[in-house]
Amino acid sequence: NSDVEAEYNRNLFFYNELKFEVADPTVIYISDTNSTEYGYFYAYGTSDQIGCTGFQAWRSKDMVNWEDMGPVYLPDFNNNWAYTNYWAPEIIYDETGMNIQGETYNYFMFYNAERYDENEDFVGANRTTYQYLSVLYAKEPNGPFIHPDGFKNSNGQDLSVTKPVFDFSFGNSLVNADFQCLNTIDASPFVDDNGI
Fold first, then answer.
1. Which among 19, 41, 119, 176 is least buried, having the fewest CB atoms inside 10 angstroms?
2. What spatial distance separates the first Cα and last Cα of the chain, rounded to whole Å?
3. Which of 40, 12, 16 is nearest to 27 (CA)?
């Protein structure tokens, strides 16, 4: 239809030929004038480049030319709740920041990763796995990002690198039964108008 074509504005869309391979991307603009990264866009995502065993970042001033910043989070697999498939990071910036063990952190990365069933003997490729949500925090967008460990959350539960921060699994009395599930993926955090 010529009427539809006449109203279509091709300038509304931009094709960005990425120079890095990433799935489930998230991008933030660094607006903190006190940050050494002020004025950059930062991209994070599920990356085969590091085998989905952590997260890396890329930065750009123009969203066309991207610089690989390397890994921003690589877990210690000898002491970590998740073993593989670190997917779909989403990051938010908290201008006020959060005081965690005496230091202020402003960047919070929500993600999901895979955990083996702790009650099951190892049976190779057939071993049962589950996806859980967790969060990391950092002072700057290029990390290093840290998993909560050694303090309590607002519900009074201990946070540890040996377990995910968010547990929606069946039997968790803190989660409404309608929302309990075996696999929880692709968090999309936001801060509401009331600051929560």
1. 119
2. 47
3. 40
If we measure between CA atoms, which residue out of 74, 72, 67, 69 comes closest to residue 51?
A: 74
Q: 97: left (phi > 0), else alpha (psi -120 to 50), else beta?
A: left
pLDDT band of residue 128 (cuts 50, 70, 90) is low
φ/ψ of residue 166, rounded to 5: -110, 125
Residue with tokens 């929500």: 110
Phi, psi (degrees; rounded to nearest 5) at 126: -90, 5
CB atoms within 10 A of CB 123: 8
Token pair 């968010």 is found at 166
Residues 31-68: tens digit of each pLDDT? 999 999 999 999 999 988 888 899 999 999 998 889 99
Contact between 166 and 115 under an 8 Å Cβ cutoff? The reply is: no
C-alpha 64, offset from chain centre: 22
Residues whose CB is less than 8 angstroms from the CB of residue 49 and which lie 6 or more positions away in sequence, other chains included: 20, 21, 22, 56
Residue 166 DSSP code? B
Q: DSSP for 104-125?
A: EEEEEEEEEEEEE-TTS---GG
Nearest Cα neighbor of 113 from 43, 46, 66, 42 is 46
Whether the CB-CB separation of 24 and 46 falls below 8 Å is answered with: yes
